[in-house]
Amino acid sequence: MTLKNDLILRAARGEKVERVPVWLMRQAGRILPEYRAVREKLSGFRELVMTPSLAAEVTIQPVDILGVDAAIIFSDILVIPEAMGLPYEMIESKGPFFPKTIENDKDISALLGVQAADELEYVYEAIRITKKELNGRVPLIGFAGAPWTIFAYMIEGQGSKTFSKAKKFLYTEPERSKVILDKITDATIAYLRRQVEAGADMLQVFDSWANILSPEQYHEFSGVYMDRICNELNHIAPLTLFAKGAFSARTSFAKMECDVIGLDWTMDAKESRQIIGANKTVQGNLDPCALYQNSKGIEAEVKKMLDAFGTQRYIANLGHGLYPDTDKYMVKAFVDAVKEYKS
Ligand code: CP3
Fold first, then answer.
1. Rounded to an integer, what distance in angstroms lies between the CA atom of residue 194 and that of residue 198?
2. Cα(295)–Cα(289) distance, integer angstroms
3. Per-residue pLDDT for 42 more than 90?
4. Which residue among 128, 139, 191, 302 is the one 20 to 30 A from 74 at the CA level?
5. Active site includes 323?
6. Is 76 a known active-site residue?
7. pTM score > 0.90 for this model?
8. pLDDT tens across 236-253, in order?
9. Tally of domains within the chain
10. What is the pLDDT of residue 67?
């Protein structure tokens, strides 16, 4: 199936584009009444993730409604801990919760590595259905959490501002931490490869809790594993690394085998370009809160952002996921402003 719109893939590979491609992290979700309508008919978030035809439906909604240049498969990073042996619950208006966490060596050896990828057939099926229904309109992005972020949820057992339990484990059990991180990396690589085999055109790895590690810790407990993911996968599909708040990681990511580096809004466009160099594409980085303005304000922000990043080797996005109370018309205003930008 040839793609009718492959802007994002060309931008990722550093080929010339006639305009800047745009999509948004968390574009499929509660900002869309159409998403909430599908979600309301089900027992909860997990059921939506595990029902391929419905996951495909909500994946495509933002392509139809917002006009974005890529779809991202509707799922969650927490399907990996579940497939490895630690099921998650999604508690309404609170977030993820793991009834079982890692307490001892027996729990560590019981975790599945590569074989975890066999447990996620429902994701591959959702990808196959989505690809068929998209019919080549835009590329489909597959994704996973970074090993460190997944580790953080597995040890902590829930969301946290500090993830101090997970960090305590790094400080007190560094070797055991690495055994777990290695297993998560094995599972993640196998899982992402299966997503590409099912039809994903591009991949993104989310390191949402990168910002709470020191630069040395980031290298030791995250960067090493990101590097392994890049070496195994970047040749099969363009790969984006997104490490929220990890200033130090920009330098090391610049040397890794990834095509795209995601930036959050605290990172300066020109400075980031300088650190990262001309051989990578950058993605980002508008503050999701900027979308609380009216459309005139949003257009001005988009102009500033595109003036700073330029139109080549660049993918427009937010600096983190959309907040659920964002007005969908303001999200559309963001997408339209990127599409209509003139330098
Ligand atoms: O549109 C998309 O971006 C694709 C779908 C997607 C979801 N989660 C759906 C979701 C993606 C890419 C994710 C990634 C994800 N999940 C991350 C990394 C990105 C980031 O935001 O930093 C993380 C840390 C998670 C874990 C997670 N999932 C949390 C902490 C929560 C609760 C917070 C919240 O927003 O409610 C979720 C739930 C979740 N994942 C929702 C959606 C649409 C909301 C649940 C609902 O619809 O009821």
1. 6
2. 13
3. yes
4. 302
5. no
6. yes
7. yes
8. 999 999 999 999 999 999
9. 1
10. 98
